[in-house]
Specification:
about 240 residues; mainly alpha; two-stranded antiparallel sheet; about 55% helix; globular
Length: about 240
């Protein structure tokens, strides 16, 4: 009910989850481009770390954006439109911050690492954002595909592989300490750049093969974490409303 009171009763979270990606490409929304990532100035695969004061620029970053829009969505002095926009940003950025290459400066978060997917040239970041996720989910970004994939992950969270891990994922869900929690989430995802994502020189690799197979458990884990944390964060906001 809380989310519906802000987004509208006929608006689903899935339908607006990618709005921030579209908005950043507009003249009105270009200010928000830096909010989709934090450029961790670390040295993967030798050392991975996120440091808010070191890595978040004056233009902002994903961590500061989560903190800002957590505050704005609660601010009843703002217009309904501003609070709706804050909710849309928040839903999106809690997803972005869980993708390891959104928490990495190396080669512009992997955007400058040229690879191939199914023999077509692309980049490492795009593969982690889209191609590998779609292959795991079983198809393109359609409602049926998303709902089926989500149901599989929810089953793992409720009664499967992730049931014993899920409480650790929400060890920080204090909306009064949004910057601290977002930093923890970014650090958690960034660590995977050393563990797997950037462990070897991926430049020029065909990723639809051994690399993809190894990435599957990490992708499923991160998407599950992102969804579970988002639910917990929204529940905390609702409880405080």
């Amino acid at each position: 009910m809380y989310v519906a009171s802000i987004l509208g009763t006929d608006v689903s979270m899935a339908s607006i989850a990618s709005w921030a990606d579209v908005y950043r490409e507009t003249s009105a929304g270009k200010f928000s481009a830096p909010y989709h990532f934090i450029d961790a100035k670390d040295t993967p695969p030798t050392s991975c770390s996120v440091n808010f004061s070191r890595d978040c620029t004056t233009k902002g970053c994903s961590i500061s954006a989560v903190a800002n829009y957590t505050s704005r969505v609660q601010d009843t002095s703002l217009s309904a439109t501003d609070r709706m926009e804050a909710m849309e940003f928040l839903i999106h950025f809690l997803g972005d911050i869980t993708q390891p290459l959104h928490d990495e400066a190396e080669e512009v978060g992997g955007n400058d690492i040229s690879v191939t997917w199914d023999s077509k040239t692309t980049n490492l970041h795009a593969c982690w954002d889209t191609q590998m996720v779609e292959k795991i989910a079983g198809g393109k970004n359609s409602t049926a595909t998303v709902e089926s994939f989500a149901a599989q992950l929810i089953a793992q969270i409720d009664n499967g592989t992730y049931a014993s891990q899920r409480e650790d994922w929400i060890s920080c869900v204090d909306i009064t300490k949004a910057e601290d929690c977002a930093t923890q989430w970014a650090q958690d995802a960034n660590a995977l750049n050393c563990q797997y994502v950037l462990q070897n020189d991926e430049s020029g690799m065909e990723l639809d093969g051994t690399y993809y197979t190894g990435a599957v458990p990490y992708i499923e884990l991160q998407i599950s974490k992102g969804g579970y944390r988002l639910g917990a964060w929204l529940n905390a906001l609702a409880a405080a409303a």
